[in-house]
Amino acid sequence: MTSQNRRLTMKDKQAKYPQLRFKGFTDAWVQRNLSELLQERNHQIEPNDEYELMSFVAGTGVTPKGERYDRSALVTNDSKKYKVTEFGDFIYSSNNLETGSIGFNKTGKAVISPVYSIFYSTENADSRFIGLLSSQKNFIHSMVRYRQGVVYGQWRIHESDFLKIAVFTPKLDEQNKIIEFFERFDKLIAANQRKLDLLKEQKKGYLQKMFPKNGAKVPELRFAGFADAWEQRKLGAITDSFSGGTPTAGKAEYYGGEIPFIRSGEISSDSTELFITDAGLNNSSAKMVGIGDILYALYGATSGETSISRINGAINQAILAIRPTKGDDPYMIVQWLKKQKETIISTYLQGGQGNLSGSIVKDLLITLPKNKDEQAKVGSFFKQLDQTITLHQRKLEKLQELKKGYLQKMFC
């Protein structure tokens, strides 16, 4: 690929040349209305063996119903007829554009809900190229301009208005080159996602087998050389714990300092969005924690999440800091808390309402090996596994960011 390097003329300033493109392509991209590139498909039939009833899933596309948690209500209504869609069709939902209900059919023959707008490509374009275009923010903004209605669920972008949108496109051979590039990139991302998912599933399995099941005193799987029964103790009996606070909002002298201010969504991070000053720390209930402390989220969407602190910083009231006092391995305690998260949430936060508290956490009954060497081995095993998962997560995120960068530079 090469960067476009030319002195901009008035014609060039109309964004007809992408910043980055493949060698051998130098022609300007031509502005066309979508009506020149797509035609509406509006044929409705009853589901049959050839055209099965499927869902259109944000970020995924046309998907067999069985893969969607049996959420049949999303794809059924009183009508017995549904819209036909073929492989390569471009599809959107007027109501959910911003959350990804836009893209093309990678599955093949199907029927889907009539609420979706469906198009097939003309000889001037490949619908897969339009699908890539649709991931651009300016494309979504162009669509939203035509959205009618004030109530979610009743929003509508008429197909005739959608086809008025103007886009810049290259000739078909360059379109195909771009499509092939991003299809390879998507396969790479998907392969890395599968590796990450597999590692997470393996960890779940190890958590189930390397900790005793309810009522048991030994785990199903353990390291060689250890045979003693594990013992159950209250977490508060083997640790000290404390939560923090928040400096008064609006006091400029309390914020913008050099002390990282850790909030519940940042307990696993090596950075924070906010920083406080010494004055903010000294004039509030915020408390300092250090690298290696156990951090446990008490409030909000991350309730029940736990991690080992990766930084020195101050915590707010939504975090409980936990420090072992009897020589128990902190990574072992963290993994036990991770394993018990769903049980803790379902027991103390019925329906997701309310907050956890320090007293609740301290009263939890934790089962650990008496032998500190066994604790260290189990803790080290999960620490290394978590590090491997983190590395794969970062690799996946870098690939996703790289794709975003290419999308920005390879389109006008």
TrEMBL record:
Gene Ontology molecular function, alphabetical: DNA binding
Record Pfam families: Methylase_S
Keywords on record: Coiled coil, DNA-binding, Restriction system
GO biological process per UniProt: DNA restriction-modification system
Type I restriction modification DNA specificity domain boundaries: 74-200, 229-400
Family per record: Belongs to the type-I restriction system S methylase family.
Name of the protein in question: Type i restriction-modification system specificity subunit
Organism whose genome encodes this protein: Levilactobacillus senmaizukei DSM 21775 = NBRC 103853
Lineage, top ranks: Bacteria, Bacillati, Bacillota, Bacilli, Lactobacillales
